[in-house]
Amino acid sequence: GKPQDNGIGGYAPDTNREIPDAPAEEVLEQQRKATADANSEFSQLTDAERQKLSLPQGVKGRYDNDPPGVYRWGDGRAAIQHPDTGKWTVPEGLGTHKGSFGQMMGEHDLARAGHARVAGGKTQLGNSTNAPGIDSIWKNANPPPDYLVVESKYRSGTPFHVDDFPKPSSGVQMGNEWLEKHFDHLVDNDLIDDDVYDKLTHPAGFSPILQRIDANGKVQNIDLNSGRDIKTGQQVFTPQEILKWRERDDEG
Hints:
disordered N terminus
């Protein structure tokens, strides 16, 4: 827009557009911080490194907590290669592979926190995430309880809410009836050991975890017993919201 006459022989700043006062790289750094965990570090790629990896010019680096194959555009958004076309894109450009991107980011987050995979997991970009069942089970690095039973949900817009869990014939997803059915399936098919099964069939033996992953790959792990983020202790869902979800499960 044009500068505006201020009536005293000069011009007032144009307020119809935003012009950042900070240098461009500082603005990008602020944008990047909004896409990452608070304790992550951004590492810039050199032109030689980018060329060696066959990355496009717009890809500038990666966070130290990104899994292999995930890089970052200059503004911090995730850059990932489409498994079908080979094109570098943001997660929203992955189409039907968005769910596997979310699970991959979530599993990497749990592994970095020291939890040990017991069942499920090992997701790679392009793996189907449509199979019914528990996404993954982890030996808790900070017991009690002994295990974390995880359901991953990728969302680019409004975060997945506890009310959004579907309710198939086996009960509300991640509810007691639904979990018991899938624990039985895992042990019957030798996908978990009997001693793990014994712990999982005791309510105090595990925490059901809703893992929310956003379009930038940020991961939040929420204990569905307490409604709290297991990393920060932040109350994400109120006790009333957790109770409402439990009541849906008890309705049969």
